[in-house]
Amino acid sequence: MTxxxxxxxxxxxxxxxxxxxxPLCIGVAVASGVPAELGLITGIVGGLVTGFMRGSSLQxxxxxxxxxxxxxxxxxxxGVAALxxxxxxxxxxxxxxxxxxxxxxxxxISVSVVEGMLCGIxxxxxxGQIYAAAGLKAxxxxxxxxxxxxxxxxxxxxxxxxxxxxxxxxGTIAVIVLWKKLPKAVQSVPGALAAVVLATLATLAFSLxxxxxxxxxxxxxxxxxxxxxxxxxxxxxxxxxxxxxxxxASAESLFSAAAVxxxxxxxxTQYNKEMIAxxxxxxxxxLLGALPMTAVIVRSSANVNAGAKTKASRVLHGVWLLLFxxxxxxxxxxxxxxxxxxxxxxxxxKLIPFRQVVALWRAHKGEALILxxxxxxxxxxNMFEGVLIGLALSVVKTAWEASHVKLEVxxxxxxxxxxxxxxxxxxxxxxxxxxNLESLPQDRPVELDLSGLHHLDHACRTALENWAERHSATxxxxxxxxxxELESEQSKESEKVTVA
Length: 500
Hints:
By secondary structure, the chain is α/β, with parallel strands linked by helices. Helices cover 64% and strands 7% of the residues. The strands form two sheets. It has a four-stranded mixed beta sheet, with helices on one face. It has a two-stranded antiparallel ribbon with strand order 1-2. Helix 21 (430-438) links the parallel strand 4 and strand 5. Helix 19 (365-380) runs antiparallel to helix 20 (383-402).
């Protein structure tokens, strides 16, 4: 036991992750237009291949909802047989990027963007799984899911089957929440497992009309890339899809890694190694003809919240997926789908950072705005583009705050007007600078002192030179400009280097 000091915690966490992974694997596969079993194969590879590798110890990989549209379009254009080739080549590209050290660049992600990502994904998961809990088909888009909820509840009220299904889902959530209030000895069994067992027993005992998991054999759907599929690599069309798979899968995985690191105090992610692990997993998925894999924040957060300590939990979750999907599909067929939807609704709720939003709003309203915009963008578009929007907004905010500039004007009534610029003069502050300078009297000489500037970009320098020419063109003495000290320091440094 000393060799595996956290075996109990990791074992229990793996069961929770397994229960979260089953509906995600099946749901993503169906939404992607491929057999449900291909999603399970990707989940198994995520546990047994990527799970063993170094990178992010608590992050769990599998098929991701963020890739469904891309996979669906690829299957529609190139066929299911070509999916393995696309995923295989994307995996090899990820391996190359990992070995080239590109993964570490994904560490440059704002905390507000990470929190916004968690919030947005949580909202989409909750909205989508409410439909699943009621046995209804969810709209395709995040906004559609949320906007359609009132209508979905109205439809459910008119259907006994939908209300029964919703009751199973709500009961599952209630058991998970109340389980933590029970004695410690009882809590040794994960609340999610207890909730699924109780939901399954209730469904069987009362013969409730609710949908259950449908899985057939795995071997029948495994389709390694054939010569025809490999032959498509000769055409340029498929390469655009391959590059898109590699970039989006990598971005989602490493953005997720940044988010998972915020959820625990254990070892931090080694980004290049995580990129290699994802590449290895996708390479194996491609050889099996399965769905592409990314790290999945819902599974990963469930893993952390369930008390996982090492990568053993994610490896074991792959074992359970393989065992039940390959050897005991009949056991999976007993599990009610609304119970699994209830687990995902609870997991999505845990992703929404309520306290962090309030704290950010009180201390840093700009950061809180970035969080909200990121979350809304993910709901409105998708995770990848939503995170990019959040990152762009974060960069703009940082650039704006960094470009503080102060213009002090001294007019003694006679002689030249003295204007002192200090701080960072960038194009973002150019309108303010020019408005102030152009308001100076045209019939008076001006001395413009730039020695207090720490930074002067090209746009500002050009604009100041043009203003000086215009001001001098009225017959006034030419504007006297004192250059920034930063230039003289740089020239001195270059002289030293030259002399040396």
